[in-house]
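Below is how a single chain appears once it has passed through the pipeline. First comes the sequence as given, then the structure the pipeline wrote out for it. We keep one example in the README because the format questions we get most often are answered faster by looking than by reading.
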Amino acid sequence: MSRSIRTITAAAAALLLATACNSASDSGGSGGDGGGKGGSSARGVTDDSIKVGGIVSMTTASGYSKKDTDLGAKARFDRANAEGGVHGRKIDYLGAEDDGQDPSRNLAAARKLVQREKVFAIAPMSSVTFSGADFLQKQKVPTFGWGTIPPFCGPTYMYGFGGCMVPMPGGTITQSWPEGLKKVTGGAKGRSVAILANDNDAGTFAIRTYKQSFAAAGYEVTYAKSTVPATSVPSDWSAYTKEILRSDGGKAPDAVVSVMQTPYNIGLFTSVKRAGFRGVLTDPTDYDPGLLTKSATRKALDGVHVLLSFQPFEQEGADMRRFKADIKKAAGKDVPLNMHMMTGYMSADLFLALADKAGKNLTVDSFQQAADGYSDRDTMVGDRRLPEGRKESFGCGALVQLKDGKYTVTSPFECYEPIPFK
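Resulting structure:
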């Protein structure tokens, strides 16, 4: 079965090594100082509640925001509470701390939630800067988020809601992006791609991963560089555009693959379009109806095929209808849906599933035991499996295209065979 992979948007290798080392020694326990009354001694757990908090990059220097991740989590927790909670305990969701995509604030938020607020779990954690991972692992705090950064891959208390989407030694690379793109390009034979990422550890790793991934699918990778400054969006994209559009033996590739966030994609795609590029543009970021409210943004991203690791909102089904109803109820009105809402919602959903399996006597030990060997099928991110999810993605993938002010599915949510990571 395929496992879907999203862009690796941040986190240094050193952080991965630190969290992995801690995972070997932190194998269980009550989760710190009590905080419970009656039947549980776990931090944040009482007879009638489970305290949970989140960490989300609601503000960033580039203007990119994941704030709706908080709404998604609230929507899922609200429904759980309306249905009676988990074994009679309501979820006391404190909302999400804003880390500003700043490493020091991310760690400070983690410390606050654990040491001051005494939360049992962090759900969701959505930031490209997860400097609090080592602290949370040492404190044995179950933490849930999008597994597109290394801290969600390996450590025993970290859970990617779609599994680990960062290829790990001995693991696999999921092929949802290149295999899905074949439906757009009419196959890979004789087709070329150029891949561009930011100049940081995450970008370097992304290039290594996707260069292998697209080549394995049959595409010729004519350009693969992580050279775009990660600290600020370039005002002049001409140098990148010139290289990319001459990368296939002096001519343009068939597809330009951007492994960057929205502000960068707007600049890059606008530049290559102005240079006359008529091929395929694709990224893993720009699935957000809120982007359509600005005409310049809508124009820049028109025609772009966006990779998803969950069912597109345009594919109807019982789970999707329930998701939409939950979001509307939590927001108090109809709101444009986006991937950040899904990140929060599915992070909360996986936490609830494991807490339910843990039973009435909820402790960190019982929670971890419930996670070991957990599986279910046909969720909005595919078939979930643990502990496999610590090394591999268990989601699938889809592509949607922004065209004429709306999204349409160009490659339906599907699973593909993974390839070994080298």
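The mean pLDDT is 89.

See the next section for the split statistics.
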